[in-house]
Amino acid sequence: MTLTIALSIVLALLFVATGAGKLFGAKASLEARDHFRMNPALWRTIGALEWAGAAGLVVGLVTWEWVAHAATVGLGLLMVGATITRLRYDSKPTGVVVDLALLGLLALLLFLDR
């Protein structure tokens, strides 16, 4: 249970940080958006979904467990989309590896929560 709590908090903080970059227009985030040829509204929506997922991970720890499960699945789907986008537009494997590592951690979180 302790590992579940720690992993949930770490992932929530990570997704809050990446979502903030998208929502508030951090320079590196805007450069990535332009590199991936993404619509600005879609980019901000992804940031908002990352924040919603992070909130769901934390809420699921203190109240309804199903909220954390739904948030984990939703964030996992975002990471699948991120991986596909990187494979289409990026030639560097590091971004894909990071996306897949996060997807793996989200899958681990679901497994630990059983």
Provide a quick synopsis of the model.
It is built from 5 helices and no strands. With 114 residues, the chain is an all-alpha fold. InterPro entries: DoxX.
Structure write-up:
The chain is mainly α. It has one domain (2-112). The chain is 88% helix and 0% strand. The chain has 5 helices and no strands.
Descriptive terms for the model:
0% strand
Can you lay out the helices and strands and say which pair or pack?
Elements: H1 2-24, H2 27-35, H3 40-62, H4 65-89, H5 93-112
Protein name: DoxX-like family protein
Subcellular location: Membrane
Keywords: Membrane, Transmembrane, Transmembrane helix
Rg from C-alpha positions?
Answer: 14 Å
Fraction in beta strands: under 5%
Instruction: Please tell me the overall pLDDT.
Output: 92
Q: State the secondary-structure class.
A: mainly alpha
Helix % is: over 70%
**Please, how many domains?**
1
Number of helices: 5
Give the ordered list of helices and strands.
HHHHH
Subcellular location: Membrane
GO cellular component, one term: membrane
Keywords: Membrane, Transmembrane, Transmembrane helix
Protein name: DoxX-like family protein
